[in-house]
Specification:
One of its GO terms (molecular function) is olfactory receptor activity. The protein has 324 residues and is mainly α. It has twelve helices and three strands. It has one domain: Rhopdopsin 7-helix transmembrane proteins (Up-down Bundle). Helices cover 74% and strands 2% of the residues.
Length: 324
């Protein structure tokens, strides 16, 4: 692909499924991005404005929405711009910046999902100590740990791949600068770095995933040990955004685990296995699930089905209607 404004250090982003040039695909991506951006922005605004939502659970949810909002915004706008302008080149610095923010947000989300599971565990299994264990300072420290931990790890995994020598074409067969796609361009032996990447994936993906499953296992065991049906419903409702009813509560907890699996599953396949084990098309599909679909689903599954959030939304809409 010959572009006049390319330089020797520019990369070429081939885009989302370059072999499938259907005009409606980009429109679907735009609609998903709009829904994800709107859902996460509304949730952030409601948690900030409504004093009833100034609790640890909703603070962590607000951080998740902030991450998802930035997560989808660091890839989709560039992809859409390239599609409509026809310019597919991206500078070395822009590519490194996109990779850094993508990794920072992704790793921060891994940490935050684990902390949210811990919050649920404390609320159900140690309710009397909840206000002590989940005080405002602890919540701020949790958020800081997620962001700082993600940024430090992302810095390492940005510097190394972006400094590997590239042989031949600088075409990235992807819609953004993702690490495995960049590693495929390298002309040197990267087996040592693959091992570092594998270890990092265990630390930031596999271990958090195991901790989340452990938290929910302990939650359900605690619920099953309770004697009264009312106690079960109350505990499960605490775990699932205060929804009433055992079935509804179980459905939300199951949805939480489904989204965790939806996020962690593709990420572990992409980053824990050597790039020779999966094709470029498979990488793009898995990345699209993580970067586009998950940020759209998270507000719906975690919050927008929550009665307190819906109540805050109704109050905000009624207040605006009265003022107008």
């Amino acid at each position: 692909m010959n572009q006049k404004n390319d330089t020797s250090t520019d990369f070429i982003l081939l885009g989302l499924f370059p072999w499938f040039r259907h005009p409606n695909l980009i429109l679907i991506i735009i609609l998903i991005y709009t829904a994800a951006f709107t859902g996460n922005a509304i949730l952030l605004l409601l948690i900030w404005l409504d004093s009833h939502l100034h609790m640890p659970m909703y603070f962590l949810l607000s951080q998740l929405s902030l991450i998802d909002l930035a997560y989808i915004s660091c890839t989709v706008p560039k992809m859409v711009t390239n599609y409509f302008t026809g310019k597919k080149n991206i500078s070395y610095f822009s590519c490194a910046t996109q990779l850094f923010f993508f990794l920072t947000l992704g790793l921060a989300e891994c940490i935050l999902l684990t902390l949210m599971a811990y919050d649920c565990y404390v609320a159900v299994c140690n309710p009397l100590r909840y206000t002590v264990l989940m005080n405002p300072n602890t919540c701020l420290q949790m958020a800081a740990a997620a962001w700082i931990g993600g940024a430090l790890a992302a810095l390492v995994h940005t510097i190394y791949p972006m400094n590997f020598p590239i042989c031949g074409s600088r075409e990235i067969n992807h819609y953004f600068c993702e690490m495995p796609a960049i590693l495929r361009l390298s002309c040197m032996d990267i087996s040592a770095y693959e091992m570092v990447k594998f270890v990092s994936t265990i630390v930031f993906l596999l271990i958090p995933f195991i901790l989340i499953l452990t938290s929910y296992t302990l939650i359900f065991l605690t619920v099953l040990r309770m004697n009264s049906q009312k106690g079960k419903n109350k505990a499960l409702a605490t775990c699932s955004s205060h929804m009433t009813g055992r079935r509804k509560a179980l459905a939300i907890c199951s949805s939480h685990l489904a989204v965790v699996s939806l996020y962690y599953g593709p990420a572990m396949i992409i980053y824990m296995t050597p790039h020779s084990f999966h094709t470029l098309e498979q990488d793009e599909i898995l990345s699209m699930i993580n970067t586009i679909f998950t940020p759209m689903l998270n507000p719906l599954i975690y919050s927008l089905r929550n009665k307190e959030v819906l109540g805050a939304l109704r109050k905000a809409m009624n207040r605006r209607f009265i003022l107008s």
